[in-house]
Amino acid sequence: MLGARGMSTRVGMDIPASGTQYRARKGPPPGVGANRGRKRRDPKKKKNRRTLALAVAIAFLFLFTPAQDKIKYQLGEWKDDLMEELSGYREYPVAVSYSVEKHVTLDNVENREVWFNYRLPIPIERTERGIWGDGFEMDSGADYSAHNIQHIESMDIRVQTNPPSNSETVVPIPLETSVYRTVDNAIDMGTTQIFWPQVGDGMDRCSVGKCVIWEGDIAAQTTVTLIARFEVSASSFSWWEDSGITSRVDRSPSGFSASIDNSGNFEDITRSGYLSTMHGQFGIHKKWYDRDTGSGENYAINGQDSSITSLASEIRASLDADEQDNVYAFSESAFNHIYNEIVYDTGLQGNARSGPKCIADGRGDCDEQSNAWMSLLRVYGISAWYEFGPMTDAGFGDWEPHAWANVLIPLDEDWCESEGIDVYSSCFVEASVDVVNNKWLLHTPTSFTQWIEQPSTLGEGAYKFYRPLISNGSPGMWGEEWTTVGDVEITGGSYEISAWVE
Questions:
Q1: How many angstroms separate the CA atoms of 171 and 316, rounded?
Q2: In the Cβ-directed half-sphere of 388, how many Cα atoms lie within 13 Å?
């Protein structure tokens, strides 16, 4: 079972609101216990007896044993074993090549013709620097290219109609950012058409990044399906210096990963150059992404809410005195707090819980827990933003819509100078963070990046991404699914991430 399905109830039509609905479903967050490793494949009864024995032993110690140092130490070790047994872990491939299809189905059940306009993002080349190809720039001039985490080999589109109206035409989609096709040159797909224009306003432009626009009319009692196929090669990447993850997982060159020791402080967030620019576009805004456009009442990220500012202060005060201004230390502690204290749970249809609401309820799914974590970061002006795309399990069998976060962590100026890194152009890491999956500064190829949020006034890009369909049809006409096609080629083996943190 995956569990990112809360997103499925929120992506849909702009006018009217999304009509695709799912039942609320509780359970573990995505991937827990999937494809367990060989070393843990003990017989079920033996495992159950061991878990029960651990639980009874710990309960006995809590109730009847004096608090002696030696016993407390043993208690801690048993507790760790018990939590590992109860919480499970997640398994991820080091690198993978696969084909995946997205099916977007529009079902006109009415006795009239309806029109529609749908925007499908053209996925980016996702690097360790987000959408950028430049890596660390060195004072010596020996600059690095950003490591490529996700490469789209090819993308093509076809359209099916039920009842059938014509033979399917497969259209290759150019992936180059400078190649466009306007509505005047749209490709005929029967009763519909496709084109890939520049970014801009209006129904004949892409609203949040390069896209394919699919539009047309749907006859009464007719279903049309857009099928987009992607050939993908992707790999795991860690921005975390002390992660303990296998050395087979790619990292920044020359050990330029992030840690508490080389992190910058809060004052470095606004350091001249890229950091200052991104702070002006993201970090400075305490409220972000108003789900009720124009109302100013329903921000997903809210770093001004009193409950958020209070919790942020508590987390900061819990750090060692010399780490209370450390960007890495605060961001990681906020991550651990959300992961440990918020129960994974879907169930809300329509707008996701805001950061304050997720924390107040003590529960949330992928984008809701991301809202909570990013709200805490915005209190101190730390730049953080959304990343969207489907997520699958370790076997690439099931896919669900997913949302996670990016964070910009400044590195210490003195440390960068000692390493020969240009302080103003590249003395930072721009990393992926997935709270519900315990992926701290880790990107895995089981997450397919469709779109990384780009700067806007107050998060309008996220609003538009959630609403790719405009139509005068019924609210329930839209649906989508992702499916792996053919064999999946895994290279470099796999590794495990614990499903719980301290």
A1: 53
A2: 23
Q: Is the peptide bond before 123 cis (omega within 30 degrees of 0)?
A: no
- Comparing CA positions, the residue from 39, 41, 32, 42 lying closest to residue 90 is 32
Question: Are residues 74 and 109 located together in one domain of the fold?
Answer: no
At 305-321, the pLDDT tens digits run 999 999 999 999 999 99
Final residue before a domain boundary, out of 198, 231, 264: 231
Instruction: Tell me the residue length of the chain.
Output: 502
Q: Which residues contact 65 (CB under 8 A, 6 or more apart)?
A: 71
Within this chain, do residues 320 and 175 fall inside the same structural domain, yes or no? no
- 223 is in which domain, residue-wise? 93-120+152-231
User: Are 280 and 356 members of one domain?
Assistant: yes
Q: What global pTM score does this model have?
A: 0.84
Model pLDDT, residue 166: 59
Measured distance CA(84)–CA(268) in Å, rounded:
37
Answer whether 191's CB lies under 8 Å from 217's CB. yes
Structural domain count, the chain: 3
Q: What is the pLDDT of residue 74?
A: 52
Find where tokens 């499970």 sit.
Answer: 88
Instruction: Kindly write down the DSSP assignment for every residue of 148-182, as one continuous string.
Output: EEEEEEEEEEEEEEES--S----EE----TT--B-
What's the rounded mean pLDDT across residues 145-174?
89
And the tokens for 388?
């969207």
Task: Judge whether residue 77 has pLDDT over 90.
Answer: no
Are 262 and 241 in contact by the 8 Å Cβ rule? The answer is yes
Place of tokens 């070790």: 77
- 92's enclosing H/E stretch is strand 89-108
- When pLDDT is cut at 50, 70 and 90, the band that residue 87 belongs to is low
Indicate whether 351 and 380 sit together in one domain. Answer: yes
Which of 231, 248, 263 marks a domain boundary? 231
Residues 52 and 132 in one domain: no
Q: Are strands 363-364 and 343-344 parallel, antiparallel or unpaired?
A: parallel
Residues 240 and 368 in one domain: yes
| 3-state helix vs strand vs coil in the chain, percent to 5 | 30, 35, 35
Distance between CA atoms of 443 and 498, rounded to whole angstroms?
A: 15
Residue 439 CB contacts under 8 Å (≥ 6 apart), including other chains? 404, 432, 433, 497
| Angstrom distance (rounded) from CA 496 to CA 488 | 19
